[in-house]
Specification:
Elements lengths: L5 H10 L2 H5 L6 E3 L2 E4 L11 E4 L4 E4 L5 E2 L1 H8 L4 H12 L11 H26 L5 H9 L4 H6 L3 E3 L5 H8 L4 H6 L3 E3 L5 E3 L4 E7 L5 E8 L7 E3 L12 E2 L1 H11 L2 E4 L2 H9 L5 E4 L6 H8 L4 E6 L1 H4 L2 H5 L2 H5 L3 E6 L6 H8 L1 H9 L2 E2 H12 L5 H17 L3 H15 L3 H14 L17 H12 L1 H10 L8 H15 L6 H7 L3 H11 L8 H33 L3 H21 L1
Parallel strand pairs: 13-14, 13-15, 15-16
Antiparallel strand pairs: 1-2, 2-3, 3-4, 4-5, 6-9, 7-8, 9-10, 10-11, 12-14, 16-17
Helix pairs in contact: 1-4, 1-25, 3-4, 16-17, 18-19, 19-20, 19-21, 22-23, 22-24, 22-27, 23-27, 27-28
The structure holds zinc ion.
The site of zinc ion has 8 residues, from loops.
Length: 587
């Protein structure tokens, strides 16, 4: 997708009103200068979701989410930033120029691949519905108790028992053989001829999460092998990046608060038909990091359903550490021996399946149960093995509070000291640079109240912004989020642009930033005497930083003394003198 120029984004923002955008989706009630509502992003009984029309931002004091119009649309409709901007642009009548495409050829090909896939999906669907042509596939579906409505939802189709059915159809539509081969729908034969990839197969169109057909899965109607044939990977179809059914599941993921992940198409369809609509299938691959990031856009809990053959594999569980590393909760359902999800539903019914879901275990418990049954936890060597496997998972967790909770739990269950576990965890982190990924997201530390107040004042009052810019450096702010906001504010000030929170939020990546800005601006009472408050904050930040630097230097000096490094000590002392001298001048 081309980049959307900044001016266009600003134009879209200028023409959009936050109350108009939110109120059809979330009923708003006026409350003073603001509007209030029950938050659409977390369950609550009393409204803590606030919308400020004057500042064009929203913030929930219950779950801490917040931002401007774009963030709202992204969260509410599960969109990426450019998609949300495009949607708004269309609504307010701003045209988005298609600019700066990286390679123009690539784009038109993409469009053609989507078009060809859509054409093929329609062709297969039509064949399934055809009374004569589609009969074998319809009989198979009937046998599997798949209802017509479900077939339509998943756009199931049938590729007839012919070598050139689709090929001739596509040729009549004027599509070149090259494109058809690239789309993976036909194959070149030996004598310069072409033939259909899918013949006499039940067809499962595979969509991206936006519902565009990107490829196909297919299944034989009898017992011949191979049972399943899929489209090859193309420019728009990557198995490791797409999940079957997500285009439908996304509508339900928010309400259900979880997404069920299975392996097969048919299982996915059966679950959906039985009311378990928040369900997707990995396309015959293990879950990848891309899959997990995709799921993260729609849910915070991934629920894996295993049949009992797969369940015993600690190795396959290692893949689930990916889920944990992305800060998602991972739950596991194991079906009794001899059942796959499809049989289970058919033979035991929905209530029983729901019961299985309700009894799903957290990855931690599941893995620990599995390991303690596999190893002998009365032997020290075995305990070491269990510990190593468990710590590998815990090390992946980005949330320090969760990590510490699990360490305590592990210590209790294995009767191993917390201290010992922490030492092992640290060793794992130091050693396993390839396995343990360092925390990409810093866990949000409580920000100094002075930093918060100053940012709020800078956002509200340009004069305060100028003053702060004259008195402090970006580096004087300790919190990394604060640093980023201040840097952006300083930039606006030096470019003599006005400071507009909505603009700022739409130009800075990261929910945390938007949440922080909206939280600072919505709700808190008007500050009196802004200049005085700003002066006090600047002063306190300077003093605190000075003290911090002084202590750090003193520590270094002591170390140099202890090491007998005189040259180093003299250098540091000089620096220390300068620091104190400097501070006197300033004070
Ligand atoms: Zn909320």
């Amino acid at each position: 997708m081309g980049l959307i120029p900044d001016e266009v984004i600003d134009e879209v923002l200028a023409r959009t009103d936050i109350v108009e955008l939110i109120s059809p989706r979330v009923p708003l009630r006026r409350s003073g200068a603001n509007f209030k509502a029950l938050c659409p992003f977390h369950r609550e009984k009393t409204p803590s979701f606030m919308v400020s029309p004057s500042k064009q931002i929203w913030h929930c004091f219950g779950c801490g989410m917040g931002g401007g119009v774009v963030n709202f649309l992204m969260k509410y409709e599960n969109l990426e930033f450019p998609e949300a901007v495009r949607m708004l642009a269309q609504k307010v009548g701003v045209r988005i120029p298609e600019t700066r495409e990286i390679s123009p050829g690539a784009k038109s090909k993409r469009k053609s691949l989507y078009e060809i896939n859509e054409l093929a999906a329609k062709y297969f669907q039509k064949n399934l519905e055809d009374p004569k042509e589609g009969r074998p596939a319809r009989e198979y579906l009937k046998q599997r108790a798949i209802e017509d409505e479900t077939c339509r939802r998943f756009r199931l189709g049938y590729a007839p028992h012919r070598w050139d059915g689709f090929f001739n159809y596509a040729k009549r539509e004027g599509i070149s053989c090259d494109f058809l081969v690239q789309a993976g729908l036909i194959l070149p034969g030996k004598e310069g001829n072409y033939y259909d990839r899918f013949r006499n197969k039940l067809i499962f169109p595979i969509c991206d999460f936006q519902g565009r057909v990107i490829g196909f899965g297919s299944r034989v109607l009898d017992q011949t092998l191979p049972k399943y044939i899929n489209s090859p990977e193309t420019d728009i179809f990557r198995k490791g990046r797409n999940l079957y059914g997500l285009n439908l599941a996304r509508e339900y993921a928010r309400d259900r608060t979880y997404v069920i992940v299975l392996e097969g198409y048919m299982d996915c369809i059966t679950l959906y038909q039985n009311g378990f609509k928040s369900v997707v299938a990995s396309l015959g691959t293990a879950l990848t990091a891309d899959h997990v990031r995709l799921l993260k856009r729609f849910t915070n809990t991934v629920c894996m359903v295993y049949d009992s053959d797969q369940a015993g594999e600690a190795a396959s569980l290692r893949g689930l550490d990916l889920v944990v590393a992305e800060d998602l909760r991972c739950k596991i359902v194991t079906l009794p021996s001899g059942f796959d999800p499809d049989d289970y539903l058919r033979r035991k019914g929905r209530e029983s399946f729901q019961d299985q879901l309700d009894r799903a275990l957290d990855l931690f418990d599941y893995k620990l149960n599995l390991l303690t049954s596999k190893y002998d936890s009365s032997k020290v060597e075995d305990i070491a093995k269990i510990t190593a496997e468990m710590l590998a998972t815990i090390a992946r967790m980005t949330n320090a509070v969760l990590r510490s909770g699990y360490i305590k739990e592990l210590s209790k269950r294995l009767a191993v000291d917390v201290e010992a576990l922490l030492i092992e965890l640290r060793r794992l982190k130091d050693r396993g640079a390839t396995y343990y990924q360092p925390e990409i997201k810093e866990s949000p530390s409580p920000m100094r109240s002075e930093e918060k107040t100053l940012i709020r004042l800078m956002l509200e009052d340009k004069d305060v912004g100028l003053k702060v810019k004259d008195s402090l450096e970006v580096e004087d702010f300790r919190d990394s989020r604060a640093k980023r906001i201040v840097q952006a504010l300083f930039k606006s000030i030096s470019e003599q642009k006005s400071i507009d929170p909505a603009h700022l939020m739409s130009h800075m990546d990261g929910d945390e930033i938007s949440q922080m800005i909206s939280g600072l601006l919505v709700g808190p009472d008007e500050l009196m005497n802004r200049k005085k408050v700003a002066d006090d904050c600047i002063e306190r930040i300077r003093e605190a930083n000075l003290k911090h630097r002084r202590l750090a230097l003193q520590r270094k000096i002591r170390l140099a003394e202890a090491a007998g490094d005189d040259a180093q000590r003299m250098e540091l002392l000089a620096e220390f003198q300068k620091l104190i001298g400097g501070s006197k001048e300033k004070l």
